Amino acid sequence: MVENKNILVVEDDPDIRELISFNLSNNGYQVFRAKDGESGIKKARKNLPDLILLDLMLPGIHGLDVCRIIKSDQETKDISIIMVSALGQEENIVEGLENGADDYITKPFSIKVLLARVNAVLRRSLEVEDQDSAKSIMINGISIKPRLREVRVEDKLIDDLTFSEFQILYLLVGHPGWVFTRYQIIDKIRGDNYPVTDRSVDFQIVGLRKKLGGAGKLIRTVRGVGYRFTPDEE
């Protein structure tokens, strides 16, 4: 358990909301609750929790829109989000991750699994906050400062990268010329046994290339294998 962390539970079903909140509280977390998307956004802005457990099928503002709003707000964009939904098809998971979620849990779920996922996401956040030993990178006009989570291309700040996009970029640029399979990328940025398909990595790469502009072409597809960062144009 990651100590002294605050979690916002956004869930319209009162039984599920209380079940999650009870177990989080019993494990030492401070819990805030919201029953719809609008109040969830308000409480996120007011309390700035470390993590949001976000249902998708919410009354009023849909969970995906809640995620987009939170991730586009400068004050709340660094809050980790785990989506919790009965929508468990591959395309639902991919869409959730594409919109900035750090994890996706399908209903019905095991409380033990939920708590393990919460711990894992919060640990990753701590690792990001405490990267004194992580080296800054400057190559081909791309500057990455992991401690600040800052990316610049030709001195232009790229401030709309998702957590996953940043981690993928740092991995690839930190190992120029190395080829990483999609599943190696998943393991490196999410941890072992993360239930995401290789297709989701492709979506992350597409978004990353677009946000990097001209520098996006330096991330090359190795057909049938994966991706690599090629600093010198071939």
What does this structure look like?
- This protein is of the alpha/beta class.
- Helices cover 41% and strands 21% of the residues.
- The chain has two domains: 6-129, Rossmann fold (3-Layer(aba) Sandwich); 137-229, Winged helix-like DNA-binding domain superfamily/Winged helix DNA-binding domain (Arc Repressor Mutant, subunit A, Orthogonal Bundle), CATH 1.10.10.
- The protein has eight helices and twelve strands.
- Helix 2 packs parallel to helix 3.
- The termini are far apart.
- The model has no long low-confidence stretch (mean pLDDT 86).
Brief descriptors of the model:
five-stranded parallel β-sheet; elongated; Rossmann fold; 234 residues; alpha/beta; Arc Repressor Mutant, subunit A; 41% helix; four-stranded antiparallel β-sheet; 8 helices
